[in-house]
Amino acid sequence: MIENTLLWASSAWVSGNWQRNVLLEAGADGLWSRVVAGVSEPPPRAQRLAGPALPGLVNAHSHAFQRAFAGLAERREDEVDDFWSWREQLYRVAQQIEPAQMQAIAAQLYVELLRVGYTHVCEFHYIQHRPDGSLYQDPLEMSWALAVAGAETGMQLTLLPVLYERAGFDQPTLTPGQRRFRADADQVWAMQAAIAARHPAGVRAGLAIHSLRAAAPDSIARLRALAEHFAGPIHIHVAEQAREVDQCVAALGARPIEWLARNGGLDARWQLVHATHASPAEIELTARSGAGVVLCPTTEANLGDGLSDLPAWLAAGVPISIGSDSQVTRTWREELRWLEYGQRLHRQQRNIAAAPAQGLPSSAARLFERALQGGAAAAGFSRWGLQVGARADLLVVDRSDSSLLGVPSSLLLDALVFSSPGRPLRDVMVAGRWQIKDHELPGAMPVAARFEQAMLQLWPESGD
Q1: CATH superfamily assigned to domain 6-55+387-444
Q2: Measured by CB atoms within 10 angstroms of the end CB, which terminus of the chain is less buried, N or C?
Q3: Which listed residue (274, 305, 309, 401) is catalytic?
Q4: Among residues 61, 237, 309, 325, which one is catalytic?
Q5: pLDDT tens, 169-213?
Q6: Whose CA is closest to 351, among 372, 330, 365?
Q7: pTM over 0.90
Q8: Segment 85-128, tens digit of pLDDT
Q9: Active site (annotated) includes residue 309
């Protein structure tokens, strides 16, 4: 039986607002069985939370292995440095990682993500095979490494095996640096089925297509046919780079989202990752389809991808989620901050995401609530947040953090997103179990030691 299932918060984020004196009960199944505001005094056996309560967030786009590369590609040796040159550097790291290292890297990442309030991660997972492209004895060994990392840290996952079969629109095969990513439609479908059948604790399965440049139209059609009755999420990188859009038009006669909508249709299962260079017509197509968009603003800034049209996505009502992607930043607060700040710099105005005419004057609140609900869809959940039937995930805000001292309760979420960095989360619960209490995550030190050892193996000069 789960311990400490009855909780009481002086304030909690329920139904898109701060509500007072909230009683929460998590059942033995790890779901919220009761969420009631206005309970002025907690029952005798209820645990009083040490601060205001927030729901955990879904990290809707993660490449865990890239944590081993974060911050290590910030020098320019040639005349031009862009996404494509960064990618070639990344491949050199990706070629070296073995399953034990993958587990060590992912576990460290998940510790870091839990500390900042991500309680579920969508792993867009394409390192499948040995560096020469041959299969491991268990073809899903790399996937299980991620699952074990989640289990040992308390992070829960949606694993997304990736359709990846060519180097580009005009390159029908993979480069040597991409051989271990190879997976056709039938293999991806089989991997999803194997993950679902084994059902590791805290792990669910979805599907992914790397991108239109990395998967041929016939293969995408094949995966669509296999997944006709599949209810889980389907993710795809799309329109991240302007060059990619131009190549897509030349090769397929349409822009990426336009092509996806024309050829088999988008629906609410689909999650369009980045969509940085989506046209107004494509944003409307996405809205009509029910598909979501996954924005990764700190990675998109780091890679020089460009700036997504956030106001258009918001106005169209498209589900929006956020992801840490390349792991250069590993906190949802900064992702939301830069969603807004990018627009401020571009438009030379403030509070772009706010919608006072709709009764939504807070940029932070509007972005947080959209990311909360969009993340649920991206991970394959029908319910999320502090509501009955949703998974019992909870964040307890540390009001003693320097960035929150003296902040009025009604403006707490604004300060969390837009005030200076700190350590504002005291406790983190996942599926009814405390994973972090009083800022402490049991087992974090040995996880860090294994990560450091993996980094020394991948970057031997870092030990000098």
Answers
A1: Urease, subunit C, domain 1 (2.30.40.10)
A2: C
A3: 274
A4: 325
A5: 999 999 999 999 999 999 999 999 999 999 999 999 999 999 999
A6: 365
A7: yes
A8: 888 889 999 999 999 999 999 999 999 999 999 999 999 999 99
A9: no
